[in-house]
Amino acid sequence: MKGLSIHLTDVCNSKCTFCIVDSPYMKQDTVMRRRISRFLHEHAGQDYEAVNLHGGEATIRKDFLEILDEIRELGYPTVFLQTNARKLARMAYAETVVGKGVSLFIVSLHGATAATQDGISLAPGSFDQAVQGIRNVKQLGASVRTNSVVCKDNYTELPEIVDLCMDLGADVVNISALHTSGTALRNFWDVTPRYDDIRPYVAEACDRAVARGVALRLEGFPYCGVPGYERFQIDWEDNKFKMLYRSFVMDDYEGHMDDFTRVKDARCGGCVFTDVCGGVYKEYAEMIGWDEFHPVTQRPADNPAPVS
């Protein structure tokens, strides 16, 4: 997959306690339409297979539907939308968005209950809206990839979150390690769980997805943090995204993440996955340390490589 990825807005209609772009504290948007349009025009006709849109919450831009029109007019084959799906709870709006070319909805679902999700998002009703939004776009024939970020408030519920995602018809279930930046860094000790604590719940959640035959992806985890599940790690060599983030262009999004957001310890050199593992988010390593991480010395026979 060769795609473009565009950060459409800094602001959001939720205030998640671990928001990596720090949306709860953004007073005004810094993303200008002309910069988005220039980026789209500069890369049109260059064999990009999709445009991935995200924020903040992309759907709350007043010109969001116009941006979808522009993407289609420039000939990009499809659009992926990362969203909390709150606005998609209205079927008429969901129909409009699907009709304008969005084929994959990457929906944040961080709780198996309203109490958990609404507590994380600090937005009463956001759980019910997300669930209805997923149902609506699935009914319209679009694909859904759920994304659940593992944090202190939800890790014991993770297997039930995955069950809910599958019950709602998710085509892919994505489980993400907490990226300790933005609002997550402000709230570090309140939101950041220990890997030793989350490991059995992540494993159970993975096992439930595998048992039901639903595609599973793990994102942002050091390989030794989820031993035995290495084959479900996203293979970024097969997923290349060039990203516009505010005024900054990342030619290789995952390469940027490896270079600037994650770190490795000397012990990582002895791990069989060192060439594909990005390491540990640097704030986690600085504030909690390395005692939980141990190099994988033998590649499991049944987990030969990450998935694409």
TrEMBL record:
PROSITE patterns: RADICAL_SAM (PS51918). The keyword S-adenosyl-L-methionine applies. SUPFAM superfamilies: Radical SAM enzymes. Residues 1-222 form the Radical SAM core domain. Pfam families: Radical_SAM. Keywords: Iron, Iron-sulfur, Metal-binding, S-adenosyl-L-methionine. One of its GO terms (molecular function) is iron-sulfur cluster binding. The keyword S-adenosyl-L-methionine applies. This is Radical SAM core domain-containing protein. It comes from Catellatospora bangladeshensis.
